[in-house]
Amino acid sequence: MTSDSIICRPTRDTFVRFAIVLAAFFGFGLYFFYDGAVGYRKANEVFFSYQAFAALGKEASSSTSWGTEKALHPLISAEQVDGEWMMEGKYPLPADCEAARTTPAEAADFAAMSKSWAECWTAYTARMHYPVKPAEHPFDTAAIREQWIAGGVCMVISAIIIFFILRTRSRVMSLQGDTVTAAGQLFQIADISRLDLRQWGKGFKGVAYATVKGRKIRLDGMTYGGFDPSAGQPAEEFMKALLARYEGEILEYEQTENTAG
Questions:
Q1: Which residues contact 14 (CB under 8 A, 6 or more apart)?
Q2: In this predicted model, what pLDDT tens digit does every residue of 125-146 receive, in sequence order?
Q3: How far apart are the C-alpha atoms of 174 and 162, rounded to whole Å?
C-alpha cells in the first residue's frame, strides 16, 4: 500500500454486522409466518379444548353417566365460541384439528372425568404434545392477519439488507493518484470544495463527507478499509493521503494537524 494508490475494501466486521441484522429480521419473519400459518391456530385448538374439558368436567360432576354417544360429538363446537362466529372462522383452527371432529378418549371417559377432569386434560396434552396451560385468550383472524403482515415487513427489510450487502461487496473506497472512489462515485480531489471530518475521529469513527460540486459524498472508513492496526489501518492511511493532496476547506479533523487551506 502506497500513498499513490490506496484501495479500501469492505471489512469483515461490516459483513458480520450485516449478517447479524439479517438473521434477526429473517428469523423474526419466519417466526411471524409460523404463527400466522400454524402457531395461532394450534393455540386456538388448545384454548378451546381446555374450555371444553372444563365444561365436560362440570357436567360429569352433576351427571350419572354420558353413555357411549359422547365420543361421537366434536370436543370443540361452534356454540362454545360466539355462536355462528366460530362457523364463519373468526377463531381459525388447524385443518387437521381432531377435536373439531370427535371427543378424544380422555374426555369421553365419564368415570375419569367425574373424578378429575384436570388429570384427564393433562393426559390428553401429554399424548398430543400440547402445553398444559393454554393461552390467556384465543386468536382471531385479525390477529393472524397481523402476523402475516409483520412477517412480510420483516422479509422486505431482509431483502433490503441483502441488497445493501451485495452493493457493499461490489464497492471500494480508493485513492489512485488524484482520483477518489467512494459511495459508488468517482471524482477528482480538485472537485472537492469541503471535507467534513467532524465524525472521523469521534462518535461514528471513520465517517466523513466530501462536498463535490454541491453534493455530499460519504467517506466510510468503518465499512471500507477499517482501522485495524494489524492490517495497517487502511482507512486512516486513505484519509492521510487524501489530506496530503487536498487544499480546500476542512471541518474539525482532530487526529492530524491539518487546517483549512
A1: 168, 222, 223
A2: 999 999 999 999 999 999 999 9
A3: 23
**What kind of architecture, by CATH, is found in domain 171-251?**
Roll (2.30)
Q: Which pLDDT belongs to residue 73?
A: 82
Q: Residues 156, 159, 161, CA angle at the centre, nearest 5°? A: 110
CA distance 175 to 5: 6
Residues paired with 215 in a beta bridge = 212
CA angle 53, 57, 60 (to 5 degrees): 135
Cα gap 110→65, rounded to integer Å:
6
Q: Which residues pair with 209 in a beta bridge?
A: 196, 218
Where in the chain are the domains? 17-152, 171-251
**Cβ–Cβ under 8 Å, residues 251 and 230:** no
Amino acid of residue 133: K
